[in-house]
Write a structure and sequence with these properties.
The complex is a heterodimer. Chain A is an all-alpha fold. Helix content of chain A is about 75%, strand content about 0%. By secondary structure, chain B is mostly helical. The longest helix of chain B is centred in the C-terminal third of the chain and has 38 residues. Chain B starts with a helix and ends with a helix. The chains are: A mainly alpha, B mainly alpha.
Chain lengths: ~300, ~110
């Protein structure tokens, strides 16, 4: 009784910390405070998830401790080994990792359903498949965005002829594969679930490939909104209001940020997604900030 | 189909209220950010999207201790989610360091 009350209290305070943290982060003077508060909210939530009473739990605390510490170390290492000026592109990597986390959770859940370990209703199956497709697209899309921002991959080397057509074709294949897996119900083969995840990941690459390198920060912001959405759907799968509300909050914030960034750069979101590499933004918008470096420069000097 | 949806809506009314207000809140909280703060805000909000790691913890806790495939998947998911959260917060902090340095130089 007390434990349940405490976990619920922790989840609730964690969410309040997130909202207040985001609020503080959008004021020039209190960004650091807001970041710290959001981190505290995350710690509260992890504590709650570890001590939450789960019926028939096996706990596996050793696995949990290992995952938490390896993840924390990897995150810290990845973000601190970079030069200070290159921090923007690292955001894309972390966003991709979050997407991969959601996709793997979806895969684990659907394999459990196939093994008969957990029963899944039809709506649950849809939620699991949505997690896999969104997570997969966010994962590979963000990694490609990172590679482009770092100059590891040139625009011209990943842009195909008739790219729009290829993208629509790939999306159709992905959706049909998802419907196929859905129709198999709980008797499906795990091979098809894995194929579905892989196709979603390929689609993520081709979705980001035709967008110009200068717009990669916008793409990261948009994909970050999607990863919030996948977190919300994972919340539905596990029946966790905390993850549901937190994910939706992040998704709404991500979309709002994307639109605000588009306004700052004097571009339209549709334009960013459809114009592609061929038409340089300078031609249509004389004031547009077309170079990523320039955009970063402005971002940073405004704040100072 | 329509009936099923209306039934679902009526049964889960509280969740729908929650979703509506979460969306509005996410929009409101971020929309007033000045242009220069958009990148750190993106990074911080990205760290918050690491909440998905809670799902990995719940999965690991419910998995049988000899089901190594699920344990491995959950472990990997947890490590990736935690890297997202920790890395996001640290990156935001470092961006702010950079701003402060620039300010000091000016």
């Amino acid at each position: 009784m007390t434990t349940i009350f405490l976990t619920n209290l922790f989840y609730l305070s964690g969410l309040v910390c997130f909202v207040l943290g985001l609020r503080l982060m959008s004021n020039t003077g209190s960004v650091r405070k807001g970041n710290f508060l959001a981190g505290a909210g995350m710690c509260l939530a992890i504590l709650a998830a570890v001590m939450e009473p789960v019926s028939g739990a096996y706990n596996n605390y050793a696995w949990i401790a290992g995952g938490l510490s390896i993840g924390a170390f990897a995150g810290y290492f990845l973000s601190t080994k970079r030069a200070y000026t290159l921090t923007t592109s690292v955001v894309a990597i972390f966003n991709g990792l979050g997407g991969a986390c959601a996709a793997l959770l979806g895969l684990a859940e659907i394999l459990l359903v196939y093994n008969g370990e957990s029963a899944a209703s039809r709506s649950m199956l849809i939620a699991i498949l949505c997690t896999i497709i969104i997570g997969g697209v966010v994962f590979t899309g963000s990694l490609l965005a990172y590679a482009k921002m770092e100059g590891l991959i040139k625009d011209s080397s990943v842009n195909l002829r008739r790219h729009g057509f290829v993208n629509v074709l790939l999306l159709t294949i992905t959706l049909f594969c998802g419907i196929f897996v859905y129709l198999q119900g709980d008797q499906g083969s795990s091979l098809w679930a894995i194929v579905f995840m892989l196709i979603a990941m390929v689609y993520g690459v081709y979705l980001v490939a035709p967008i110009a390198t200068a717009d990669m920060l916008l793409v990261t912001a948009l994909l970050h909104g999607f990863s919030g959405l996948s977190a919300a759907i994972v919340g539905l799968i596990y029946g966790s209001q905390f993850m549901l509300v937190g994910g939706v909050l992040v998704a709404a914030a991500g979309v709002t940020l994307t639109l605000a960034m588009c306004r700052t750069m004097n571009r339209s979101l549709i334009g960013v997604l459809t114009e592609g590499i061929s038409s340089p933004p300078q031609a249509s918008f004389p004031n547009a900030v077309s170079d990523t470096e320039e955009a970063k420069e402005i971002d940073q000097s405004d704040t100072a | 189909m329509m009936d099923a949806f209306m039934q679902f809506f009526n049964d889960n009314l509280l969740i729908f209220y929650l979703l509506a207000f979460a969306i509005l809140l996410g929009f409101e909280v971020v929309s007033k950010a000045p242009a220069g703060l958009q990148t750190p805000l993106l990074s911080g909000s990205n760290a918050i999207s690491g909440v998905v790691l809670i799902g990995a913890i719940l999965l690991l806790r419910q998995t049988r201790s000899d089901d190594y495939l699920t344990l491995a998947l959950g472990f990997l998911a947890l490590a990736l989610g935690m890297a997202n959260a920790v890395g996001g917060f640290v990156t935001t902090d470092r961006m702010l360091d950079l701003f402060r340095q620039k300010k000091a130089n000016q």
